[in-house]
Amino acid sequence: MQYRIDFNCDLGEGCGDDAAILPYVSSANIACGGHAGDESTMRATLRLCREHGVAAGAHPGYDDPEHFGRRTLSLDRDEIGLLMLGQLARLGAVAAGEGVRLTHVKPHGALYNLAADDRVVAEAIVGAVAAFDPQLIVYGLAQSQLTDAAERAGLRAAHEVFAERGYAGNGRLLPRGRPGAVIESLAQAIAQVRRLVLDGEVDTAEGPLRLRADTLCLHGDRADAPAFARAVREALLADGVRIQALA
């Protein structure tokens, strides 16, 4: 059996070594100026994607750089749609100028986690993506409201799993600050990646859980992200897994 996975990373956030990470991943989620990033960082990251043959996607989040987009803001459906469209347009314009085609969209932080359980938020995000470019793939937490909303709308959904985040028994990520929410051990993270990609399962405090895995995320704001990305890639290749962008 041939295993294949997209390996993505959140980049252009001004807090990691993007150039050192990009050779090891197949897709990049680029901050669009909401939680982080500006025209300069967008342009630099897009150029790196082009140089390394990495698929470039949008990583829109709450317009709240002070809290890095990890605080939920009270926005209604229309406001979320406008937030998404504004950031997609911003990155899209820079990408067009660089001759790079955007392939996907992955919400960031608190917006991503809220969309996993809130159907209204999920549909607002999907509606904005469809209005901007229905060919874009929507990245969402595996088996969540966001992936369901994308599929109902006729958009392509990518069910996302995480290399170094802990899971609750319902398939949601453990909140940051909770014990086990962030996996610091490389060996433990690689073991989790292998379970997810090869077996379609993840261990939780409540026991093993089946999860669909189309794309695997590593957070680029880790201090050890380049070494982590290289080690994860090497482990997957050693297991005969093909690493390839979804687009």
Order of helices and strands: EHEHEHEHHEHEHEEEHE
Shape: globular
Biggest beta-sheet profile: 7 strands, parallel, barrel
Structural class: alpha/beta
What is the straight-line distance between the termini? 22 Å
Order of adjacent strands in the largest pleated sheet: 1-2-3-4-5-6-9
Strand content: 15-25%
Low-confidence stretches: none
Topology, number of strands: 10
Proportion of residues in helical segments: 40-55%
The rounded Rg comes to 16 Å
> How large is the count of helical segments?
8
Query: How confident is the prediction overall: mean pLDDT?
Result: 96
InterPro entries: Glyco_hydro/deAcase_b/a-brl (IPR011330), LamB/YcsF/PxpA-like (IPR005501)
Organism: Lysobacter firmicutimachus
Protein name: 5-oxoprolinase subunit PxpA
GO molecular function, one term: 5-oxoprolinase (ATP-hydrolyzing) activity
Molecular structure report:
The chain is of the alpha/beta class and 247 residues long. Helix content is 40%, strand content 20%. The protein is built from eight helices and ten strands. The chain has helices at 18-21, 39-52, 77-98, 109-117, 119-132, 145-152, 186-199, 225-238, and strands at 3-11, 27-31, 55-59, 102-105, 137-141, 157-162, 201-204, 207-210, 215-219, 241-243. The strands form two sheets. It has a seven-stranded parallel barrel, surrounded by six helices. It has a two-stranded antiparallel sheet with strand order 7-8. Strand 5 (137-141), helix 6 and strand 6 (157-162) form a beta-alpha-beta unit. Helix 5 (119-132) crosses helix 6. The protein is globular. The protein starts with a strand and ends with a strand. The mean pLDDT is 96. GO terms for molecular function: 5-oxoprolinase (ATP-hydrolyzing) activity. Its EC number is 3.5.2.9. InterPro entries: Glyco_hydro/deAcase_b/a-brl, LamB/YcsF/PxpA-like.
